[in-house]
Amino acid sequence: MATIDTILSETRVFAPSEAFRKQATVSGMDAYKALCAKAESDYEGFWGALAKEHISWHKPFSNVLDETKAPFYRWFYDGEMNVSYNCLDRHLADKSNKTALIFEADDGKVTKVTYQDLYHRVCQFANALKAQGVAKGDRVIIYMPMSIEAVVAMQACARIGGIHSVVFGGFSAKSLHERIIDAGAKLVITADEGMRGGKAVALKSAVDDAIGMGGCDCVEKVVVYKRTGGNVHWDAQRDQWWHEAIIGQADTCEPVWVNAEDPLFILYTSGSTGKPKGVQHSSAGFLLGAILSMKWVFDHKADDVYWCTADVGWITGHTYVAYGPLAMGGTEVIFEGVPTYPDAGRFWKLIQDHKVTTFYTAPTAIRSLIKLGSDLPKQYDLSSLRLLGTVGEPINPEAWMWYYETVGQGHCPIVDTWWQTETGSNMIAPLPGAVPTKPGSCTLPLPGIIADIVDEQGGPIEKGQGGILVIKRPFPSQLRTLWGDPERYKNTYFPAELGGKMYLAGDSAHRDKDGYFWIMGRIDDVLNVSGHRLGTMEIESALVANPLVAEAAVVGKPHDIKGESVVAFVVLKGQRPTGDAAREVVAQLREWVGKEIGPIAKPDEIRFGDNLPKTRSGKIMRRLLRSIAKGEEITSDTSTLENPAILEQLKETVK
Ligand code: 6R9
């Protein structure tokens, strides 16, 4: 990435202000170091004490960590609890009238829900799910817009021990189909349509299409929340309106006590192969990670108004929308729409209107809002803000500085949080009252997270050198396995080359003289487009599934706003097209990928060749394609290429 160079020469340091440090939960560097030292001297004691303190247990655990079947770790495994109980019931004694959710719809309509209300809504819907036949361990697909109901649906599953798998509303029917089958879902929860930027997004019809593709016999019922009242096709046997399903259901529901290790959810994410991975999370360990990071990284306080802009379809929307803020008994904002509707001041207006104190978003959103109106924040009263966060991709120092000065007005610490779908919660991030920040660095690991950078054999690297990012000890919030594919779990995350016990994150990084981590990017074939993870293989498989396409290779190219953009090199079965014909095929293929995976995966650029550059053994030379996509001069040796002439064709873009 072009920004890496600027990042590596970044020298600015921002220590926490005196005022922030004084009120912080972890106050000062010594307090942070003391927590880290505690974890290192008695690892299990450290985590055990935290789990006892922060989780309400139905049956206390007597064992902290079981490593006998490593890397299939178990945490707190003889304890019993319920995540929904921890997010709702335990707050009712003293916070029943506190606002839990402030929901702002696309059109600006605001709905507030207290803890008491949310508890009743979750209980009632949990009873409705039971009435539809959902029991402990059953999988439920949630394909919903950002809404109070999406959170209610997730919490209701948790309440009865159902395992949810949320599929982002921007994924296509085809992607949904794959996930329904892989998870063996018994029930699908969706909405008629979602609303984003004044436009309706059809959801129910995608569910119909997905199920219509066949092989989804596991699905017994589809529950549909009426959001817009738009027209939907109805299968009277299978479909059930949300508002009808809850009629007559009691608004209290005894939680199902689950084992600490029982799965809370599966979330599909992209990897190096074509097939998305079903990342499986536990109940107690996941919850503990959510709570501790809310406390340590977001310095969460009782009177905070917390706003994480992530969709519940991503891990960030699980940990920091559906669970973390509620487990803390906090007040959070949930926003249905997009940052640019009705104009690029929408985020700032929301912060002003709801007096948001803690704002957590993605670098790509920050960059696009700089571009669309870098002065806009000044037109709003942002004085309620006290902490800012970013997640999803590296943030370039310029965007960081703008966020700090223009949004945070120079007094809000920025927490740049590095973590992944698989880690469940923040791993490397500053504790804002303790760790000085540097623009572009996610700084230091959370206490108890033993992150390091190693070489390809798992050995130490020379100081200051880049290497691969690993976590050397198991930690409570990490994934437990890949749904239905334990072998892939082992091989992907705990490869034998690294000794089989270190968690391989899939990112490269380096550490500076202060031990700060600087994330460089993925080491596998995963792209990060606007903070969304996309597998190059996934897009390639989608392309070659098109009848026109013989072969395709996909690479990433640096992009000012999106971080990376998708460039596809395509060989058609027929002749290599040029001019209007090429433009026509590009439009068709983009549309095709949108249907196969979802609009987020549409290639930004498609180029055609009579062939792809390959070695004599037939391997596609992706490194070369990356250079071509960037428009770089090819200086490396291309003599091993089977067909050097192809390079000239691939340099041509379709305009
Ligand atoms: C939470 C989330 C994970 C990948 C991860 C890395 C990138 C996330 C980052 C970051 C630099 C940060 N990433 N946070 N890179 N700085 N603060 O985004 O999960 O969708 O699974 O993506 O995103 O490459 O490996 P997920």
Automatic annotation (TrEMBL):
Listed HAMAP family: Ac_CoA_synth
Annotated binding of ATP, by residue: G392, E393, P394, D416, T417, W418, W419, Q420, T421, D507, R522, R533
Post-translational modification comment from the UniProt entry: Acetylated. Deacetylation by the SIR2-homolog deacetylase activates the enzyme.
Cofactor(s) needed for function: Mg(2+)
Organism taxonomic ancestry: Bacteria, Pseudomonadati, Pseudomonadota, Betaproteobacteria, Nitrosomonadales
Chain positions recorded as CoA binding sites: R196, G197, G198, K199, T316, S530
Keyword terms: Acetylation, ATP-binding, Ligase, Magnesium, Metal-binding, Nucleotide-binding
Highest taxon listed in the record's lineage: Bacteria
SUPFAM superfamilies, per database record: Acetyl-CoA synthetase-like
Pfam family, one: ACAS_N
Main enzyme class: ligase
GO cellular component: cytosol
Record NCBIfam families: Ac_CoA_lig_AcsA, PRK00174.1
Gene designation per UniProt: acsA
Protein family membership: Belongs to the ATP-dependent AMP-binding enzyme family.
Coiled-coil spans in chain: none
N6-acetyllysine modification, residue list: K619
Protein name according to UniProt: Acetyl-coenzyme A synthetase
Binding site for Mg(2+): V544, V549
EC number from the UniProt entry: 6.2.1.1
Cytoplasm found in the keyword field: no
